[in-house]
Amino acid sequence: MRTQRVILAVWLLATVPACGSAGAGTADAGGDTYVGCVNDPRVNLTAFPGTVAADAPATVQLALLTADPPVPLAGENTWTFALRNADGSAVTEPAGTVITADAFMPDHGHPSSLVPSVTLQPDGTWRLERVYLTMAGVWRITLKIAQPTATQTAVIYVCVAG
Ligand SMILES: [Cu+2]
Questions:
Q1: 138 alpha carbon – ligand 1 mean position (Å)
Q2: What is the CATH classification number for the domain harbouring 71?
Q3: For residue range 81-94, what is the model confidence (pLDDT) as tens digits?
Q4: Whether 94 contacts 147, CB under 8 Å
Q5: Residue 153 belongs to domain spanning
Q6: Distance, CA 25 to ligand 1 centroid (Å)?
Q7: How far apart are the C-alpha atoms of 106 and 57, rounded to whole Å?
């Protein structure tokens, strides 16, 4: 029991400082761990609607359609998107396409505490929920698009302003 408590204390010491200003939903993101990102060159999605190309050699792009809240904010975000061909035309969705997502904060080396969910909607667009950005900074949302014939990856970088 005592050993477990010590291990927990060490674990907390090791993990908490990396996210010292991590209070979800707090406006105080100006702690010394905040990495400014408004002009960060990695950020490839700054507004909705927007598009993000899948990694080569994939040819699809994500057409990000709507966002709630309208810009990425600390807290839970819900986005919708469609898969498009490189020329912007609609992708004919093969049956059995499964898209999974994860959210990660590369500058702090930690994931979000929630795994986003991705659901195909009746109109053919996809709903990406529980994009839980727990603190200000750059977040990387990786979508794995598994189709019967191939798996493609699209990586979204957003800035949650502090
Ligand atoms: Cu962090």
A1: 9
A2: 2.60.40
A3: 999 988 889 887 76
A4: yes
A5: 2-160
A6: 13
A7: 23
